[in-house]
Specification:
The chain is of the alpha+beta class and 341 residues long. It folds into two domains: 158 residues, Nucleotidyltransferase, domain 5 (2-Layer Sandwich); 166 residues, 2-Layer Sandwich (Nucleotidyltransferase, domain 5), CATH 3.30.420.40. The chain has eleven helices and 19 strands. Strand 4 and strand 5 form a beta hairpin. The two termini are 26 Å apart.
């Protein structure tokens, strides 16, 4: 039995910097795991993928390395990305035998043709016969059940791990867009640096991520929060813990949050007047993991004077959209770019 025997016929993938979601035609989203691969340092053989690799991340010994194949929303390590796609698909297809016929993949709207080709090549090497690419804001809009064909504007702000994609969508196209490589990972890194500079405390990436989720905010909270943080003191080299407040973390992440808000403003400045009028009526929709940062909707609303809403289940919006496209390729053919072999 060869590798291709494990692959489904039609799948859609939200290939994210932080997490990858896999949608199987007729079944829905069947997998949502971290975009991490663990390799044997000497043989380069895969030790673990996804959740199992995430558990090893920052806790490995010298013979095992963990790699995040995607950086800023694009493939940074070609071979590891291929192993990630192959391994995650294999996890979903234990009960199915067949080859991949079609694959729809969500990509950041601002990536280059070379970066698109890297995504396409990885998908083809994982067994896909036909590869289709769709901009993530478009996929998110479809996933949120917006009428992307209609002649009015919908504004989507998709904040992932590596990129923030802002787009005004009308008539199945992006009428105005802005894509920056500042998103969830940059916010997490700001928290890491804050503890290092302020307290001489080294904390892990997972700890910083937990702080971001628990008490990170973009605007004043009605009730401010406190969290206990554990790490290693850089002066004494001993374990240490301390309490931090949400206002302190808000200050620490202020720079990347401001850059995301400024990107939203730039996109609004590029938007044609008639579509701007639609956005005034319909508001701005936030999707992606970054949409869950506390009070980010309030901060953007305060800065733009527009209504801002967090989309339903923002973490899966892009995956749901790529899945809907996969289920009806004819209907959505005008939003796709077929990656020719």
């Amino acid at each position: 039995m060869g590798f291709f025997d494990f692959l489904s016929r039609d799948i859609a993938i939200d290939l994210g910097t932080a997490n990858t979601l896999v949608y199987v035609r007729g079944k829905g989203i069947v997998l949502n795991e971290p975009s991490i691969v663990a390799l044997d340092r000497n043989s380069r053989k895969v030790v673990a993928i996804g959740n199992e690799a995430r558990q090893m991340h920052e806790k490995t010994h010298r013979d095992i390395i963990t790699i995040k194949p995607l950086g800023d929303g694009v493939i940074a390590d070609y071979e590891a990305a291929e192993e990630l796609i192959r391994g995650l698909i294999k996890k979903t297809q234990r009960d199915y035998s067949g080859t991949i016929r079609r694959m729809v993949i969500g990509i950041p709207s601002g990536i280059t043709e070379v970066e698109k080709r890297a995504v396409r090549d990885s998908a083809e090497h994982a067994g896909a016969k036909e590869v289709y690419l769709v901009a993530e804001p478009m996929a998110a809009a479809i996933g949120l059940n917006l009428d992307v064909d209609a002649p009015f504007g919908n504004m989507i702000v998709d904040i992932g791990g590596g990129t923030s994609d802002i787009a005004v969508i009308s008539l199945s196209g992006i009428a105005a867009g802005e894509s920056i490589r500042i998103a969830g990972n940059e916010i997490t890194n700001s928290i890491l640096q804050h503890f290092r500079k302020t307290y001489n405390l080294a904390i892990g990436e997972r700890t910083a991520e937990e702080i971001k989720i628990k008490i990170g905010s973009a605007f004043e909270l009605e009730e401010e929060l406190i969290a206990t943080v554990k790490g290693r003191n850089l002066v004494t080299s001993l374990p240490e813990q301390r309490d931090v407040s949400s206002p302190e973390i808000r200050e620490a992440i202020a720079e990347p949050i401001s850059q995301i808000v400024n990107a939203v403003r730039r996109c609004l400045e590029m938007t044609p007047p008639e579509l701007s009028a639609d956005i005034l009526d319909r508001g701005i929709l936030l999707t992606g993991g970054g949409a869950l940062i506390k009070a980010l909707d309030k901060r953007i609303s305060e800065e733009t004077k527009l209504p801002v809403y967090v989309g339903e289940d923002p973490l899966t919006a892009v995956a749901r959209g790529t899945g809907k496209i996969l289920e009806d390729l004819d209907k959505y053919s005008n939003v796709l770019a077929k990656a020719k072999r």
